[in-house]
Each structure stands twice: as structure tokens, then as C-alpha cells.
Amino acid sequence: MPTLSKQGNAADAGTRRQSVELLAQLPALMMMIEQRVAGSPNNDVAQLIGEIEPLRQDINTALDQARNDSDLQVRRIARRALRMDSSGQDGFGFPLGNGPRFPRFGGAVP
Amino acid sequence: MLELLKDKDFQIRLAAVHGLKAMKSDAPEFVPALAVMARDAENRWLAVSVLHEIAPASSFARLLETLQADKIVGPALRRLDKAGKDPSSVIRGLLRDLKDADVKVSRGAAEALEQVVLILPPEDCLTLKKQAVLPQSRRLCPR
Question: Which of A51, A72, B41, B130 is deepest in the core (most CB within 10 A)?
Fold first, then answer.
């Protein structure tokens, strides 16, 4: 397990950069999971939606901290990731609510 | 129809996909074209939605092959070759790599996992819960 809490506080800027690069991948993963489980007729799957928001907040908090890092690259990566997360785009790069949602199970392509 | 799937206009491609979904089991000859369509990250979700409907038995394997050839997520998925090609095995392998001490490996696994979630057949979405994808992702967050 890459202990990002340690890596995020590492003295070496390169290690912190790698740590924040991994963190920066997670918002896109969250969005994709959200797209896929939304509207699932399976309750167990649909319940995953409720787990995403708290996790997203943890990711954003960690990225927010990285935005104040002493290393320019770390700050840039964190800022970019935070911008993407708040850009109002869905997992497919379309504006939230306007873009294509993943087709519902057995349903028509919206 | 093949030409329509490649049309520059998104609405035309969308209409072609609608048509194929309506044809369902009468559209197996379009499977190779849809697999090609899935190579393009922008059109992948469209191809995925139809492939799961017209070729449910082979859609995941075909789409996984497409991702394995992808420049960005291919390397992380090719690392899993021995893990198996079913959704559950692929996700298990990616979650293992997500915890790798080498951040390049874990970052690649995160990118690949996002795309594997996209190509998951609807009935396999439960794997995300069974394999605790969200709790495992949470562990990556600094506390």
C-alpha cells in the first residue's frame, strides 16, 4: 500500500508529486463509479452512491492540502485535479446533467 | 450503418447506436465495428452500451482487449494477463496494483480501473461492492 499520508508529507518533493498524482486519479474514478451505479435496479449497487460523496470530500481535502505544498509541481497537479472535480463535467467530459448518462440497465441510450 | 457509427456528428453516431440497440440479436455483424469504435475514448461509452446488449457473452472480453491495446491504460491491464479476463479477476488485480508500493503502478491501476468500470456489464456492477472498491480507494487518502 502506498502510504500516501506518509508520502504526502515526505521531505522529497518527487515522492509528494507521485503521491498527489495518484490522488488526482481518484476523482475521475469516483465519477465513473457514480455514473455506472446511478439508477441501478440492484439496491446493493445503488447504495454505493451514498459512499461516494464522503470519499470525494476526503480526496478533495487531501488535494486542497497539496495545493499549499512548497513544491510548484505538487501545487499544480493538485490545482488541476481540483479544477477538474469542480468543473461540472460528468465522467464522460460532458456538462453535468446535460451529457449522456450511461444507459440504464436495459434502457435506451439517452 | 457502419458509416453512421463513424460519422463526425455525435447525434448521428448516437442515432446509429439507437438503431443497433433496437436490432439487438440481429446485429452481431456490427460487433467488430463497435469494438473498433470503443478504441476511441470519446466514443467508448456508446460502443459499450450497445455491445453489452447485442453480444452480452463476449462484450467484456472484447472491450478488455480494446483497453489492453490502449496507450494510456493498456500497460496496467497487460500486467494482469495471468489474473484472468473476467470482470471480477480484472478488478481484483487492479485493486491489488492500486496498493502497490510503486506509485507509477498504483496510478496506472487507478486509471485502468476507471475504464474497466466503464466497460463493466451491468450485471457485474455488483462486483464493485463485493470487492469493496470504494473502501479500498479510501485507504489511499491521507488521514
Answer: A51
pLDDT tens digit sequence for B87-135: 999 999 999 999 998 888 999 999 999 999 999 999 999 999 999 999 9
Which sequence spans correspond to the domains of chain B?
Answer: 1-56, 59-143
Domain annotation covers residue A71: yes
| A108 pLDDT above the threshold of 70 | no
The reply to whether A108 falls in a domain is no
Number of folded domains that form chain A: 1
pLDDT reading at A55 higher than 90: yes
Specify burial of residue A99 (Cβ count, 10 A radius: 0-12, 13-18, 19+): middle
Mark yes or no for CB contact A44/B126 under 8 Å.
yes
Residue A49 domain-assigned (yes or no): yes
Say what the ipTM of the complex is.
0.89
Give percent of chain B with pLDDT exceeding 90: 55
Binary contact (B118, A52; C-beta < 8 A): no
Residue of A nearest to B13 (CA): A109
